Each structure stands twice: as C-alpha cells, then as structure tokens.
Amino acid sequence: KGMATPAKATITSNAMKMLDPRQLKPDSIETERIITVLDETIAKLELSSFIPRITDSLDRFADMLGPEITNNLIEHQKLSHEMEHLLSSSEEEDTMRAEEQRGCLCLLEQRLKCSVRNVLRLLLANPSLCQALKYEVWVTESPAEVFIKAFWEFRNFMLERLLTSPVEEEEKIRFVEDISLQIKKNTEAITALQAELAAAIRTQEEEIHKKDNVIEDLKTSMQDVTEDCKAGIQQIKQEGEKQQQEELQASQARCARLKQDIEQLGAQLSALVLEHRASELALRKRKCRMEMEIGNWIQKYDTHMGEKQAEYEEVHAAYAEEKAQLSMLMEKRAVLLQEYCQIEEERRIHQEKKEQALKEFSTMTLAATRIQAFWRGYLVRVLFKSKRKKKKKKKGKGKKTKK
C-alpha cells in the first residue's frame, strides 16, 4: 500500500474533527443566539413534559409551587379535560356538528396554548423551582421524551452546520466519498478473493480425490509385493542352508591352519618377553631419577607459593580497607545525591510557578489592552453619534428659518 501524503493526512484529521460534535464551539454572536434559542426551547419542552405529571399530583407539589402556579395548573388541567372530552364526543357524534366542534376545538386549543405559556413563564421565572422539579418529577420514556431527544439531535446538527465552513463541508464530503470508494474497492477485492478461495478449494478437492485413487493403487501393489516377498524369502532360506554347510567345512579347515599359526606365534612371544623385560629394567632406573628431580622441584614450588601467599594476604588486607572506605564514600554520595535531587525539584517547581505567573500576567495584559481598545472605540462612536445629532438639529433649524 502507498504511504498517505501530508496534505491528505491533514484533510483526514480535519474531517474527523468535523465529524466529532464535541470539537465544535460557537465562534460568532449569531451562532450563539441561535444555539441559545434552541437551548431555551429544549428547556421549555422539558418543563412542558413535566406539566401532566405535576397536575396529576398537585397536592404533592402545591407547597413547592405556590398559589399562583398552582391556580394556573388547575386551570390548565380543566382545559385539558375539556379538550379530551370534546375530542371523545367528536368521535361519537354525527358529522353535522363537525364545523361547530372544529371551531370549539380551535378556541380551546388557543386557550390551552396560552395556559401552557403562562405556566412556563411562571416556572422559568424561578430557576431553583425548575431544578427541584427535575429531581422530583421523573418522566419515563414517552412521546414527549422522544421528541425532546430528537430536538437535541436537531440542535447538535444545527450547531455542526453553523460552525462548518464551506471549505470544511467540501472536505467532509470529499472524505466521505473517499471512504465510500475505499469500501467499494475493498468489497470488490473481497469478492475476488472469495472466488479465488472457492477455486482453490475445488482444485484441492480434486487433488485429494486423485490422491485417494493413488493410495488405492498403492495398496493393491503392496499386496502383490508382499506375496512376491514371501516366495523370495522361502527361496533365500533354501539357498542359505546350502551355503551354511559349505562355510562350515571351510571353517574347519581354517581352524587347523590357525592352530599351527598360534604355536609359531607363542614361540615368538616368549622371545619378545625376555627382550622387553631388559628394557623395562632400564626404564625403571630412569623413572627413579625423574621422581627425585620432581620432588626437588615440588619443594622449591612450595617455598615460592608460601612467599606469594603472604604477599596475597597483605594485598587482600589493603583491599578490604579500601573497600570499607569506598562503601563509606558511596553512602555519603547517596545522601548528597538525594539532597541534590530535592534542590533540583524545588528549582523546577519555582521555575514552573514563575512561568505560570508570567503567562497569567501576559494574558491579563492582553485582556486589559483589548478592553481598553473596545472602550475607546465605544467612546469614539458615542462622540460621533452626539456630533451627528447636533448637526442634524442645526440643519433642521436652518430649514425652518428659511420657510
């Protein structure tokens, strides 16, 4: 596979960042306003989903809500019951009164919307009460909860679209196209490999079938060979018995000749023994002289090694003393090294604190500079506005005098 170019790797990383909503942050006032409106709508939807649960147990939440919110919820509950009653009656009655019922439904729907708005306005005016209701009222999985989740997804989608520039959108589309093209190529490669695998399996099965046939042929040929071997073994036994009798006769004649050779060799051996005993006596005398020389050399070696042993003990004593001094120096070095590490750590912490203070000072200086620049610009704009108003007033007075 070819290596990816740096530009392609950068585009891929940017596309992956765009695909992750957690990387997105508002970068303009318009975007913040849109997201704020969507967040407020989600909060209102959540409070709206709590209203049916609260109205079902008003006695429980009356002390928490207060008289004003409780009265509005009672009115909302009445309107809800009227709406349900009207919807059930509209299904049972004839179609003659459909227009009248439709008009009543429209009016009741408007009143119900106003009631919900009033309740939400009162609840949103008390944030602590809204937070307490979220803990007290537990809404199970319902169509309202599903709608709120869908609205959350819509909010995240809008945030992603608002924060994605046209260039990033094109890069994202190009990235998705590259992925789909790669998936298509991989699918084609997998299909080709599967076809090759099936062909290889078929050829392997054919080879196995051929090998089975060859094995059967070899079995039949082995049976023929065993029968031939039995006949050959019988013939070899007969020939071996004849050859054994012939070799027995030849060995008897050879034994007679060997006896004569043994007698001749015995006479030669006795002559050699006498000769070797004389040479052995000479070698024994030489051995005695060598042993005396070796004893002298061993005595000299012992005296020399005694001197070396004394010298070794002196060196070993000096070595032990130097080793003890070395261990003391190593202990002192360990203590000094620990102190050095502590000093270095304190220096590093002091340096980090100093750098952090410099960074905070530079940040505060930059912030103060920008605030001062904004304030000066604001003063200049206010001054120009006041001058323009004065000029307009002067022009207006001049026109009136002309008339």
UniProtKB/TrEMBL annotation:
SMART domains: IQ. Component of the nexin-dynein regulatory complex (N-DRC). Interacts with CFAP52. The lineage of its organism: Eukaryota, Metazoa, Chordata, Craniata, Vertebrata. Residues 201-275 form a coiled coil. The keyword Cytoplasm applies. Pfam families: IQ. Belongs to the DRC10 family. This is Dynein regulatory complex protein 10. Component of the nexin-dynein regulatory complex (N-DRC), a key regulator of ciliary/flagellar motility which maintains the alignment and integrity of the distal axoneme and regulates microtubule sliding in motile axonemes. It comes from the Eukaryota. The keyword Cytoplasm applies. It is found in: Cytoplasm, Cytoskeleton, Flagellum axoneme. Its main location: cytoplasm. Keywords: Cell projection, Cilium, Coiled coil, Cytoplasm, Cytoskeleton, Flagellum.
